[in-house]
Design a protein that fits this description.
This protein is of the alpha/beta class and about 350 residues long. It is about 35% helix and about 20% strand. The strands form 2 sheets. A 6-stranded mixed beta sheet has the order 2-3-1-4-5-6, sandwiched between helices. Bound molecules: guanosine-5'-triphosphate and magnesium ion.
C-alpha cells in the first residue's frame, strides 16, 4: 500500500470526546478538554505521522493524517455559537473522511440527527466512532445503537474506542490510513499543529477558567493574549480574561485575588511545559457585556484573523521580540492589591 494522506474531520455533539481523541491520536495536548459541553470553539488541526508498518504484517507504507477537531454540533443562539458552527462547516469542506464520534453512554436523540445532517453531501466517507466504551460493561448494549445509526447514514466502518483510555486507537489509525487516498505528506515530520503558541496559551488559560468555575461563567468567558514575547529562556505573556458581568469578574478574581492566582499558576505551569522556557504571566479580567452576541468581538477572537492583522501591521506574525534583560522574572504584584489584575509568578 503506498504512502497515504488526507484531511480527517472529527464531528460530533458537545462533550462526545472529540478533543480527547485528537490529543490521543497526535500524542500531544493540542486541544483543551473539560467535562463541560462546548469547550472547543474553533477548528484545531493535529497531524498524525503514521510510520511505515511493513514487517508487522500490515504491509502499508504509512501516511499522514491531518485531523481536524471541531466545536460540538449544536443549534446556536449567539454570534459565538454561529461562529462555532461556521468552524464546523469549514472543517467539513473538502475533507477526505469524517469521524462521527458519539458518546455511547447517551441515548440517541434529535440532536444526533442534526450532526448527521451536516454530512448531507452524499459522498462524504464517514466512520462511526463509538466512544467511552470503557463506561459500558455489556458491549451487546451497543448493537441497537449501531443499528440506529446505520439506518441514518452508510458508515464505512463502525469503531468502538475509548479515547480517554486509549483503547482501539491503533485499529482506528489503520482503518483511517486505509481509507485515505495515496498522496504526499502535507506537513513536515516535526510539525503537529498549525496553531500558534500564542493562541494555545490563551486556550490553556481558558481551560483553567473552565475547570475552576461553574454555572454560566465557562460560557461567558473568553481569553485574549494581549502580548506574547518569546525569549530564549523566558516568555512574557499578558492576557485578558473577558466575562460578561461585573459579578462574574468578582468571581474570576476571587477573594483577595485568590481565584485569578490559582488560574494563573496552573496555566503558567502548562505554558512553561509547552514553551520549554520560564513564563511570566500577567492576567487581567474585564467585563465586556454581551460580547458573545457581538459579531465584531467574536470575529476578533479568531486566531487566523488575528494573525492576518499582525502580518498587515508588523509584516511578521509577531512583533519583534526583545530578549529579556534578566533571566529572573519580575517580582509579582501582590494579588490582593490589584482587584482586576494579577501577575502570576511563584
Ligand atoms: N470515560 C471516558 N471519558 C471520556 C472519554 N473521552 C472523553 N471523555 C471525557 O468526556 C469529557 C469531554 O471530552 P472532550 O474531549 O472535551 O469532548 P469534546 O467532544 O471535545 O467536547 P466539546 O469541545 O465541548 O464539543 C471530558 O471530561 C473527557 O475526559 C472516554 O473514552 N471515556
Ligand atoms: Mg472539544
Amino acid at each position: 500500500m503506498p504512502f497515504r494522506s488526507g484531511f480527517v474531520c472529527i464531528l460530533g455533539r458537545p462533550n462526545a470526546g472529540k478533543s480527547t481523541l485528537l490529543n490521543a491520536l497526535v500524542g500531544e495536548k493540542l486541544a483543551i478538554i473539560s467535562p463541560k459541553p462546548q469547550t472547543t470553539r474553533n477548528r484545531i488541526q493535529g497531524v498524525v505521522h503514521v510510520p511505515n508498518r511493513k514487517g508487522k504484517g500490515k504491509g502499508n507504507d504509512g501516511g499522514q493524517i491531518v485531523l481536524v477537531d471541531t466545536p460540538g454540533v449544536h443549534k446556536p443562539d449567539s454570534s459565538l455559537g454561529r461562529k462555532m458552527m461556521v468552524e464546523v462547516r469549514e472543517a467539513l469542506e473538502g475533507c477526505d473522511l469524517v469521524l462521527v464520534i458519539m458518546d455511547v453512554t447517551r441515548k440517541f436523540d434529535p440532536r444526533d440527527q442534526f450532526a448527521l445532517d451536516l454530512l448531507r453531501r452524499p459522498k462524504t466517507k464517514a466512520f462511526l466512532i463509538l466512544n467511552k466504551v470503557d463506561l459500558i460493561r455489556e458491549k451487546a448494549k451497543l448493537l441497537p445503537l449501531i443499528e440506529q445509526y446505520r439506518k441514518l447514514y452508510p458508515f464505512a466502518e463502525v469503531v468502538p474506542i475509548s479515547a480517554l483510555k486509549r483503547r482501539g486507537l491503533d485499529a482506528l489509525l489503520d482503518m483511517v490510513i486505509a481509507a485515505l487516498p495515496a498522496g504526499p505528506a502535507y506537513f513536515p515530520a516535526d510539525q503537529i499543529t498549525d496553531q500558534p503558541a500564542r493562541f494555545m496559551a490563551a486556550e490553556i488559560i481558558r481551560e483553567q477558567v473552565l475547570l475552576n468555575t461553574s454555572e454560566e461563567i465557562p460560557y461567558a468567558t473568553t481569553v485574549i493574549v494581549d502580548n506574547f514575547e518569546e525569549g530564549a529562556r523566558l516568555t512574557r505573556i499578558a492576557a485578558t480574561i473577558y466575562c460578561e458581568r461585573e459579578g462574574q469578574k468578582g468571581i474570576l478574581v476571587g477573594k483577595g485575588g485568590q481565584m485569578l492566582k490559582k488560574i494563573g499558576t496552573s496555566a503558567r505551569l502548562q505554558i512553561e511545559r509547552m514553551m520549554g522556557t520560564k513564563v511570566f504571566l500577567e492576567l487581567y479580567v474585564k467585563a465586556e457585556p454581551g460580547w458573545r452576541d457581538s459579531r465584531r468581538f467574536v470575529e476578533e477572537l479568531d486566531w487566523r484573523r488575528q494573525l492576518e492583522h499582525r502580518m498587515l501591521e508588523h509584516g511578521t506574525p509577531e512583533p519583534r521580540t526583545p530578549e529579556p534583560k534578566s533571566e529572573e522574572p519580575r517580582v509579582p504584584a501582590d494579588a490582593s492589591a490589584a482587584d482586576d489584575r494579577n501577575q502570576t509568578e511563584d
